[in-house]
Amino acid sequence: MRQVVDLGGLLVSAFVVNLALSLLTLAILRWLMGWFDLWRFVWDPPLAQFGILICLLGLYTLIL
């Protein structure tokens, strides 16, 4: 992926696009884990969500 993404004349850093994609994926994962009640297996859910967000951000940065 390029360093800068052109969105209708607005130049946006690729990091911002990756962060938005990571937040969207995290929101879907939070909904799925809440639906299946998997948060009961996690000791500290906010810390786990932050860790998942960092992992997703790194994954999207490497892939894209």
Automatic annotation (TrEMBL):
Pfam families registered for this protein in UniProt: DUF1656
Membrane spanning residue stretches: 7-33, 45-63
InterPro entries: DUF1656
Alphabetized UniProt keyword annotations: Cell membrane, Membrane, Transmembrane, Transmembrane helix
The name this protein goes by in its record: DUF1656 domain-containing protein
Species this chain originates from: Gluconobacter thailandicus NBRC 3257
